[in-house]
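Example for tutorial group B:
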C-alpha cells in the first residue's frame, strides 16, 4: 500500500528500521528500501504453521527473491504431484514438517488427511530450493495458469506488471481457450493520475518474460473484489472468466 502512494521528499524521514513481507516481487524490494530508508525482510509462513522461514537480516547474506531459510527445527522439501522429492532447483509443491504445524482442521478429517500425508504438511504452494537451502515461493497451485503443456506462475507475471510505475494492483488469472485450454489474462488497476495502455503492459512483459507467459488478454479495472484481510479475491475473478459474455483487449487483434 505504501509503495502505491506518490513519492514524497519526506518518505525516508520515519523511525521504521525493518518491515517484514511475504511474496514481494524481487524487483520492488531495493527501490522500496531506498525510498523509505529501511530494510525489507522476506519471509514465508502459513496459518497452519507459525514457524517462519526468513531471509537473513544481514543484507550480505540474504537472497533477494527468496523467502529465506528454514529454522533448524523445520524440514522443507519440494515434491512432485505424486509426493516424491524433486531434484535441487526444480519446481514443485512445498511440503514441511516441524513442531509448529497444526494437528488438523477442526472437525474436517478429510481435509486434514489431504493436507498432512506421511507426516508432511502439503502447503498448496509451488516453490523451489537452491543449492544453499534458500526457499523460493513461486505461486499458489490454484493460481497457476495451465496454457497447453506449460504451467505459468501468475505471481511471476504479476510481479513484472506491478513494476510499472503506473500500476496500482494487478491480478493474473486464466481465461478458457479452445486451443490451449487456458491463456493468461492480466487485470490491471491504474494509479490515480497515471495513464497506461494495454500495449504498455504487453511491452513490459515482452522485456521480462518468456513468450508463452505474456498475457493474451489485458483489461483495466477500477476496483478488485477483496477478502476481509485485503487480498484480491482471485477465485471470484476466475469464476467470472468462465462467463461467455466477458470481453478483454486481445493482443492478437
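The residue assignment follows.
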Amino acid at each position: 500500500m505504501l509503495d502505491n502512494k506518490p513519492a514524497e521528499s519526506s518518505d525516508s524521514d520515519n523511525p521504521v528500521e525493518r518491515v517484514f513481507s511475504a511474496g514481494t516481487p524481487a524487483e520492488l524490494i531495493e527501490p522500496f528500501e531506498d525510498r523509505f530508508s529501511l530494510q525489507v525482510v522476506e519471509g514465508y509462513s502459513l496459518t497452519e504453521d507459525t514457524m517462519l522461514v526468513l531471509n537473513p537480516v544481514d543484507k550480505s547474506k540474504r537472497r533477494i527473491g527468496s523467502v529465506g531459510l528454514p529454522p533448524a527445527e523445520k524440514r522443507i522439501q519440494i515434491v512432485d504431484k505424486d509426493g516424491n522429492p524433486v531434484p535441487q532447483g526444480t519446481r514443485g509443491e512445498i511440503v514441511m514438517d516441524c513442531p509448529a504445524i497444526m494437528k488438523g482442521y477442526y472437525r474436517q478429517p478429510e481435509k486434514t488427511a489431504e493436507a498432512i500425508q506421511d507426516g508432511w504438511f502439503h502447503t498448496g504452494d509451488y516453490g523451489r530450493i537452491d543449492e544453499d537451502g534458500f526457499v523460493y515461493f513461486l505461486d499458489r497451485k490454484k493460481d497457476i495458469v495451465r496454457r497447453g503443456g506449460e504451467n505459468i506462475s501468475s505471481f511471476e507475471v504479476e510481479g513484472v506488471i506491478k513494476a510499472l510505475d503506473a500500476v496500482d494492483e494487478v491480478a493474473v488469472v486464466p481465461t478458457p481457450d479452445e486451443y490451449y485450454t487456458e491463456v493468461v489474462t492480466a487485470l490491471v488497476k491504474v494509479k490515480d493520475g497515471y495513464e497506461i495502455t494495454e500495449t504498455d503492459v504487453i511491452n513490459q512483459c515482452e522485456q521480462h518474460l518468456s513468450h508463452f507467459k505474456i498475457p493474451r488478454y489485458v483489461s483495466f479495472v477500477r476496483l478488485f473484489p477483496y477478502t476481509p484481510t485485503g487480498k484480491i479475491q482471485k477465485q471470484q475473478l476466475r469464476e467470472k472468466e468462465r462467463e461467455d459474455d466477458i470481453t478483454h483487449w486481445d493482443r492478437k487483434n
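The CA atoms of residues 138 and 179 lie 26 Å apart. Compare this with the pattern of hydrophobic and polar residues in the output above.
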